[in-house]
Amino acid sequence: MNQPPLYISFLWHMHQPNYKDPVRGRYSMPWVRLHGIKSYHDMPSLLSNFSSIKQTFNLVPSLLVQLQDYASGQAKDDFLDISTKPAGELTIEEKEFILGNFFNCNWETMIKPYPRYWQLLLKRGMVVGGSRARESVARFNTQDFIDVQIWFNLTWFGYTSRKNPDIYGLFRKGQFFTETDKGIVLDAQQEVIKEVIPLYARLAEEKQIEITTSPFYHPILPLLIDSDFARRAIPEVRLPQRFQYPEDALWHLTEAMSLHEKIFGRRPRGLWPSEGSVCPELIPIMSEVGIKWAATDEGILFHSLAGKYNSDTLFYPYAVEYGGAKVNMVFRDHGLSDLLGFVYYRNQPHQAAEDFFSHLHNIRNNWQSGKKPLLLNIILDGENPWEHYSDGGEAFLTEVYNRFSKSANFKTTTVSDYLEEFPPTESIANLYTGSWINHNFDIWIGGVEENAGWDLLGQTRAVLTRSLKERRDLSDEALRTAREALHAAEGSDWFWWYGEHFSSAYSFEFDRLFREYLSQVYRALGEEVPESLKSPIKRLKKVVPPIEPRGFIHPVLDGRLTQFYEWSGAGYFEIKTAGGAMYQGREKITAIYYGFDVDNLYFRLEADQADFSGWSQDQEIYLYLLNSRPYFLILSPAAKADGFYYRLYKGKPDNHVLVGEFKSVHIYKFVELAVSFKYLGFNVGDEIRLVVEVRDKGLVQERYPSVGYLAIIVPDENFEQIHWQV
Prior knowledge:
Elements: E1 6-14, H1 31-36, H2 39-47, E2 55-59, H3 61-71, H4 78-84, H5 92-101, H6 107-110, H7 115-124, H8 131-139, H9 142-154, H10 165-173, H11 179-205, E3 209-212, H12 221-225, H13 246-264, E4 270-271, H14 282-289, E5 293-297, H15 298-304, E6 318-322, E7 325-332, H16 334-343, H17 349-364, E8 375-381, H18 394-406, E9 410-412, H19 415-421, E10 426-428, H20 448-470, H21 476-489, H22 493-496, H23 507-524, E11 571-574, E12 589-596, E13 600-607, E14 619-626, E15 631-635, E16 646-652, E17 655-662, E18 665-667, E19 670-676, E20 687-696, E21 699-704, E22 710-713, H24 719-723
Parallel strand pairs: 1-2, 1-8, 1-9, 2-3, 4-5, 5-7, 6-10
Antiparallel strand pairs: 6-7, 11-12, 12-13, 13-19, 14-15, 14-20, 15-16, 16-17, 18-19, 20-21, 20-22
Helix pairs in contact: 2-11, 3-11, 5-8, 9-11, 13-14, 17-18, 20-21, 20-23, 21-23
C-alpha cells in the first residue's frame, strides 16, 4: 500500500485583550493597532501567494472588535494621540511618555537595524525612569522627538506593507523626518488596518483558510465553570473563594459565535479554548453553541489516555464525550509548535526550515499500513513570534511554503477538511482538566496576586447576581453595561501578568484596567465602588542587578558546593522564565556564576532540574568569551565514557580554529569549569562579554542573557586590594 501524505494543520492564534479603558472610552495601549500593521496583515498576505497551502486562523472576538474600531477611524489611543501631536508642541510630560514608551519593541530586530532609531535609544539610555526621564528629555531636541515618533510607528510595519513606495521611502530616508512624513505613516497605518478583516474574509470565502474562534474576552473557561477545578491538576494549590458561574462560560461562547457570524457570514466550526484550557464539563457547553471541533495541547491528550498511547497517538483526532454530548478534538504537537515560536528565529531560515522538515519526515514514518493518514497540528501565537525573527519571519515561512508546494509527501489542510474526510474513530470519555501550559492553571490562579484578583472578581459577580434578582429600577442599558464590564474582567490576560511568572513594562496598566472593569460594574449598577478596587493588586518589587565579581575565587572543580564560600566572590546571574506575552517553559539553565583568579576564569552553571543527568548527547552548551579577539567553548553535559572535557576555539562558530581540548571541568550537581588565561589572547583591563547558549542538534534553543551580555574585566594581581571592602 502506498504511503499517504502527512496532513499538516497550522492554526495561528490571533489574540489581544480588550485595551479600552471603560471610563475614558480610549485604548490605553496600542498593540492591536501595531500588530494590525504587522503580523495580522503579513500572515494572510504571504499565505495568499501560495494558493495550494491551507491554514487555520483563530481570530479572538475581543481582537476583532478592536480591529473594527480602528478600521472605522473611531478608535482613540493614547499612543496614537501623542504620535499625532506636532513634536514642537509636546509638553514635558508627553516627552517623558515618548521616551518611556516609544522604544518598547524588540530592540534586536526592530530598533538596532535602523541606525537613527538605535542612536536615539542610546541617547535616551537603556534604562529610563524617575529623574533619568527628565535628564533624557533635556538631551532631545524637536527633531529627535519627531524622529522617535515616526520610528516607533514605522518599525511596526510588516514586510507586506513595507512594499508600499511611501513606506519604503521613509525606511530609506531614516532620519530628519517631517510632520508631513508623520502624516504619511499614520495614514498608511489606517489603510493597512482597513484591509485586515476583509483579507481574512476573502481567503475564507476562497476556502484557503478556515477561521475559528475563542471565548469572547478570552477567559479560562474551566475556571469560570468552577474555579475549584484547578485542584484537579494541583490538589495542594491554594485557591480563592470559589467562583462558579457556568452560565458565564456559555455567554462567552454564545457571543463569540454571534460576532463571528455577523462579520464573516457563517458560524465557526472550530474553537481554540483560551490557552487551550479544557475540562469535561465544557463539552456540553461547546456542543450547545454549535462547536464541532476544538483543539488543545498534547499534554491534555496524554493525561486523558493515562499512559495508553504510542508513537502515532498524537496524530489522530478524537471524539470527546461527556454528559451525553460530543465534540471532536485535535491536539497540538507541543515540541514542534514551540520550535517555530521560540527556537527557529535564532537560526538561519534555511537551517530552520531544514530542521522543521526533518521532523515532518520522522512523523510521517510513524504511519502504519492500513491506518488513516496522520494529522499533525501545529498551533501557536500568530503575532508574537515574528517580532523575534530578523525579517518578521518572511524568509522562513516562504521557504516552508515553497517546500510544501513542491512536495507530495505533505499536505496542508484545515481541521474541518481533515475531519470531513477522516472522522475520528477513537474516543475519550475522561478528558483531563488543564491548559496547554504544564496541563494546569497555575499561571492564572493559585498565587497571592492571582487569588486576590479572583476574590475581587467573585465579589463583583455576586453583586451583579444580586442586582439581577432583586433590583427592578435598573435600565436594560445599565444591566448590559454591567454585564459587559464583568465579562471583560473575566479575561485571562489580567491574571497572566499577576504573580511571578511573567513581567511587562505594562503590568500595572493591566492591573488598573482589570480593576477599572470591575469598578464599571458598580458604577453601572449605581453602587459605590469598594476601596479594595482602588489600590493595585500588583505589588511593587525592587529590581536587583546581577552581582558582579568582587574577589578572587579558587573553586574545587567537582560539580558540587565543596565549601560554602568557594564561589562567594563570583558574579551571579539568575535566569528567570522569560517575561513576555508567550510562554516558553522552564529554562534549561537557571543560574550562572562567573569569576576568576590571576590565572583562570571560572564558571558554574546550574540546571533547571537537580542536575544535568537528563541532558541528551545532542544537547550542548556554548560559552562565548567575546571582544575584538573572540573565543568560545563547547561542552556536552551528557556523561562521557572517558570523562568530561570541553573544546576551546578561537574565533566564532562560523570561522574558528581549535585551541585545544581541556579536562578542567566536572559535571555533577553543577557544571564547574576553568579556562586558563594563558590560552586566551586577552590583556589586563580588557572587557570580556560572556554569553551562554544551549543548543540541540546545532539549533540554538536558549540564550543567556536573552539580550546583551555579562561583562568580565580581566584582572591583575591588585584586583582584590582595589575591591576590598569591610
